[in-house]
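Researcher: Sequence recovery benchmark, item below. Answer with residues only.
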């Protein structure tokens, strides 16, 4: 009897081994997704059973990056969260087939890969990767080092690691609202896409995912489009076809977003009828982002919507300054119902001049820029980074024109020892169009993180005001902190001899201060330049124009001196007309440009008055038409830049507001 039991057990064990060898085999799957998107995956489609039997999923191992909406024996439906940090963007959902015990082939992964939508700006001697959010150049989104800011364009060497904006201000209750990023190690503050214009500044993960892309258009493409759009064989570039000219009305987004040339004059974007994107430079990349979702900095969202155009010239009359320069032009909208006071806006940059371990930073007060340069005589290869050798470039981040200063009712004069040194709109005959340039600059020293490197909203806001994390002011000399011996408060670190009137030290003459005079050890360097304070009214817009200027190290002149020559040339061109600098009209009449600068607020109207801003103070007329095109009223506007019109007597509905100045006709839709 015992022998029979033993024989049965042995046979059962043999059958179990045989059955294990015939278990179903699970094969890894890959799915490409967008932030905030919802997806259903059927992982069994490429799995198989050696004996042809049916099989199913026993269970899924769910990572935190997704919200599971439904699972079945054969599928999983999930939503990708919209607030992941870079190192967690690509991940796996594991699953196990039923009855797969002791069978490793019954386990597999669904590899989830976030689609990255970026473009390369390569119009001249700079090649730059542009992403559809705040941080640029370095791929902090997927941690790839194949993308970045390369100079020269065809070389592996880089002079700039990454760059982005910071913005913060206080609401009516003195509560701080702020958005700032350095590398996304602690999460994101900025997200793709526009916000609603109803004062609530709403968005969601699906909207963010839909807008996680860029639109790249070149002058050549536009010229071809103008000549060929009526040709039935013409293949329209995708970016021109899908140019994001209009927001989604169902989501209460702004009617007009990306600027376009309205060739047929119907106030709508119809590329099939000849309309086309209105760009700057010879090559441009457009994208929109906001700060309204979760904040890694722990700052409260502001409700800002940022339209950015990265652009470059191929050449400008053979002027060398433009051959190694690219630009960022921003429109920054306050879509919230809050007015922000003591608002500061700034640019953060991590300078890596080839080998990042031997760099210095400085700033040029008169030219309104900060710059990175090599801290010794030779830039060697190190840690996988290519050095520039003996001919090292200098990399500058220049604020051409920043946000508007608060109105004071006068045209502030040029050449005084104040913001007029490097700002725009001073002494030009126009009242209250003055814009900030760089009016503070600090650097970050990794050897003193506890003092210099911010990690939360309050610390970011202090840095933007020239205050260290320990509440001490930026002081002149040493490393900018009082612990290194300085006592005199200043606006600018390492200005060299560029602050001729000693604006930064409130008129007090001081010895030259640079990284060399401070005897600093060259190392990894990061800098931040700020503009402010200013009042950011609900429904208003501010502008920011940035030039990334690179000067070569083999041009027969010190690249530190040469970069300032380049900046001076570009600023001189810019100040002729900041509003139109870089505009690529490609021959079209100005009046056919979509009137992007007639920004009416509040719109939809809330109250009796609408307000808008003209480029300058000049004689102008207005007319209001009904939706059917009937003239409702017209009148003369005063000779001011800031305008307002009483519309409280009009019935509810939508209208066309037309403003005629001496040189253009501006139109926009008005909703009551």
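Model:
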């Amino acid at each position: 009897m015992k022998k029979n039991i033993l024989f049965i057990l042995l046979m059962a064990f043999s059958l179990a081994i045989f059955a294990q060898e015939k278990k179903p085999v699970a094969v890894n799957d890959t799915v490409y997704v967008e932030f905030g998107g919802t997806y259903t995956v059927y992982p069994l489609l490429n799995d198989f059973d050696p004996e042809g039997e049916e099989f199913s999923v026993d269970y899924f191992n769910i990572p935190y990056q997704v919200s599971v909406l439904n699972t079945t024996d054969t599928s999983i439906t999930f939503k990708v969260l919209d607030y992941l940090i870079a190192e967690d963007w690509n991940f796996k959902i594991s699953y196990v087939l039923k009855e797969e015990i002791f069978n490793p082939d019954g386990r597999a992964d669904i590899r989830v890969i976030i689609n990255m939508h970026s473009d390369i700006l390569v119009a001249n001697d700079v090649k730059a990767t542009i992403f559809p959010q705040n941080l640029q150049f370095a791929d902090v989104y997927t941690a790839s080092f194949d993308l970045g800011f390369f100079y020269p364009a065809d070389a592996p060497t880089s002079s700039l690691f990454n760059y982005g904006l910071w913005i913060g201000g206080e609401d009516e209750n003195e509560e701080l609202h702020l958005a700032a990023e350095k590398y996304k190690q602690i999460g994101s503050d900025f997200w793709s896409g526009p916000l609603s214009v109803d004062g609530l500044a709403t968005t969601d993960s699906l909207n963010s995912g839909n807008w996680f892309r860029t639109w790249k258009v070149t002058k050549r493409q536009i010229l071809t489009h103008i000549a060929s759009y009526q040709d039935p064989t013409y293949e329209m570039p995708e970016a021109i076809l899908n140019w994001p000219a209009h927001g989604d009305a169902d989501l209460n987004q702004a009617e007009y977003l990306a600027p376009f040339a309205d060739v047929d004059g119907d106030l709508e974007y119809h590329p099939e009828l000849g309309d086309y994107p209105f760009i700057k430079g010879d090559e441009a990349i457009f994208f929109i982002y906001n700060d309204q979702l979760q904040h890694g900095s722990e700052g409260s969202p502001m409700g800002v919507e940022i339209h950015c155009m990265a652009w470059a010239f191929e050449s400008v009359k053979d002027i060398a300054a433009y051959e190694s320069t690219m630009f960022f032009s921003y429109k920054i909208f306050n879509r919230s119902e809050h007015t922000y006071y003591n608002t500061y806006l700034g640019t953060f940059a991590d300078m890596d001049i080839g080998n990042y371990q031997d760099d210095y930073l400085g700033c040029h007060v008169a030219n309104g820029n900060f710059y990175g340069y090599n801290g010794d005589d030779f830039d060697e290869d190190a840690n996988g980074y290519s050095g520039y050798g003996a001919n090292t470039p200098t990399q500058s981040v220049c604020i051409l024109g920043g946000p508007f200063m608060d109105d004071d009712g006068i045209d502030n004069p040029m050449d005084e020892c104040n913001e007029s040194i490097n700002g725009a709109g001073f002494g030009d005959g126009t009242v209250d169009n003055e814009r900030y340039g760089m009016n503070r600059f600090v650097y970050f020293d990794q050897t003193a993180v506890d003092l210099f490197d911010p990690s939360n909203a309050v610390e970011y806001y202090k840095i933007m005001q020239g205050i260290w994390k320990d509440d001490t002011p930026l002081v002149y000399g040493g490393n900018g902190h009082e612990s290194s011996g300085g006592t005199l408060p200043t606006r600018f670190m390492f200005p060299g001899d560029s602050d001729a009137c000693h604006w930064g030290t409130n008129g007090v003459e001081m010895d030259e201060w640079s990284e060399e005079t401070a005897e600093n050890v060259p190392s990894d360097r990061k800098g931040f330049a700020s503009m402010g304070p200013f009042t950011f009214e609900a429904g208003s817009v501010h502008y920011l124009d940035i030039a990334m200027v690179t000067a070569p190290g083999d041009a027969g002149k010190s690249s530190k001196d040469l970069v300032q020559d380049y900046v001076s040339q570009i600023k001189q061109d810019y100040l002729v007309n900041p509003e139109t600098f870089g505009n690529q009209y490609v021959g079209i009449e100005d009046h056919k440009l979509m009137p992007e600068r007639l920004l009416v607020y509040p719109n939809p109207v809330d109250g009796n008055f609408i307000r808008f801003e003209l480029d300058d103070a000049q004689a102008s007329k207005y007319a209001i038409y009904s939706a059917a095109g009937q003239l409702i009223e017209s009148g003369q506007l005063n000779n001011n830049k800031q305008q307002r019109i009483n519309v409280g007597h009009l019935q509810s509905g939508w209208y066309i507001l037309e403003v005629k100045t001496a040189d253009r006709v501006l139109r926009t839709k008005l909703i009551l």
